[in-house]
Design goal:
The chain has 258 residues and is an alpha+beta fold. Helices cover 41% and strands 23% of the residues. The strands form 2 sheets. Strands 1-8-3-6-9 form a 5-stranded antiparallel β-sheet. Strands 2-7-4-5 form a 4-stranded antiparallel β-sheet, with no helix packed on it.
Length: 258
């Protein structure tokens, strides 16, 4: 995974609705085929093939990925680290007056945007691209969004729950304990727990979020079997992972493995 941005492809032939997705990184997605719906009690937003959706970090949605009308849902997704978004604001201060996106935004994927987007995808997915080139390509996408009137808010200081999620994210299967996580931050277990409690979080909640959200990503972007995904996410059994996943997202992981 790149430190500045991440490229993913979400693909499925199965219609599914995911309960309460929390956006962890500022993200922009391009619907290649099928239709994405973002749903709230007050209404929703529809993004058919050819549309771009923009999701700021911290937003929460119920998400429907619908293969219709093409028969397969495919979306390319770029996710930007807080450091890269901060770098964008330092480098392109002329966009500071634009109100940052709230909830979601959308625009048409014209030829210029598609070209910039796919250059970023190619750089991020290449094993030979330099870090400088990856950052340049990702910043180009952020610049095109800004010129269309869409910017992400400056990230500010990361909270402790977000720090914990970012620590455990690359290795969700590891044996993470409160003591081990606290040691990584050069603090005590009690201090870490107190700081998380001030944010209404716990270490176990952070671990659960990371493991299940990683599971959802792998189900949508890989061909791994559910048992393999469960192990990768730190679950000792297929059944425990499936039960926790269904409770969290509203459907069993096997639904995405027809």
């Amino acid at each position: 995974m790149d430190a500045s941005a991440l490229s993913l492809q979400i693909a499925t032939t199965v219609h599914h609705r995911v309960h309460t997705v929390t956006v962890r990184m500022d993200s922009v997605g391009w619907v290649v085929s099928g239709t994405k719906h973002l749903v709230t009690p007050g209404g929703g937003h529809r993004y058919p093939s050819g549309r771009v959706f923009v999701l700021p970090r911290g937003a929460q949605w119920e998400v429907v990925n619908d293969p219709a009308p093409q028969g397969r849902y495919v979306a390319r997704l770029l996710c930007f680290s807080p450091e890269l978004v901060e770098q964008f604001h330092r480098q392109f201060g002329q966009f500071a007056a634009i109100p940052p996106v709230q909830g979601c935004a959308g625009l048409a994927a014209d030829a210029a945007f598609e070209d910039s987007f796919m250059r970023a995808v190619a750089a991020l997915e290449s094993d030979t691209s330099s870090q400088a080139l990856r950052e340049h390509r990702a910043l180009e996408v952020l610049l095109m969004l800004a010129e269309a009137g869409i910017v992400f808010s400056p990230p500010g200081e990361l909270g402790w729950a977000e720090r914990v999620r970012r620590l455990v994210g690359p290795s969700p299967q590891a044996d993470w304990t409160v003591e081990r996580i606290a040691a990584a931050f050069s603090t005590s277990a009690s201090t870490l727990q107190r700081r998380l409690a001030q944010e209404g979080e716990t270490v176990s909640q952070c671990l659960r979020d990371v493991r299940l959200e990683t599971g959802l990503m792998l189900l949508q972007s890989s061909t791994l079997q559910v048992s393999e995904i469960a192990a990768h996410c730190g679950y000792e059994s297929h059944s425990r992972f499936s039960a926790a996943f269904r409770e969290r997202f509203g459907f069993p992981p096997s639904q995405l493995r027809p």
